[in-house]
Design a protein that fits this description.
The protein has helices at about 1-10, 15-25, 25-40, 75-85, 110-120; strands at about 60-70, 90-95, 100-105, 125-135, 140, 145, 150-155. By secondary structure, the chain is of the alpha+beta class.
Amino acid sequence: MKNILKALEDDARTTPEKIATMTDKSVDEVKTVIAQAEKDGTIVRYKTVVNWAKAGEQEVDAIIEVKVQPQKNVGFEAIAEEIYRFPEVRSAYLASGTYDLALLVAGKTMQDIAAFVTNKLSPIDGVQGTATHFLMKRYKEDGVIYDDRGGIHRLTVTS
């Protein structure tokens, strides 16, 4: 099962037939594994990584570290849920270290992200502080290397 999932993680467009050849399993077996993984939530969704700069759509990304006061009986869960429900938040993680949450946030401009922090994030009860780090250049995302010298390159997947 792991090698089937890894093949899909590397390229969601890989056909069951190709995966069967890669894994030495039957096409029906591959389709069954994929269907079960979709049903039980092992496969969460299929994703396309887009180089928005090349598509002519600039966006600004930032990593925001958030220090929060955990709530009695629920810890970080309730405040994390309140935060990750904002559409600006692409990813949210409980993290170790000085800050408790790490967020990946997107906006059209740096001012959009600043407004998010000021107007939506900071006023939440329990948020004690934030540190915003604007991402200046994308080198690699989801295993894909962004190369200014000749395009996008996927890393070779080996077992």
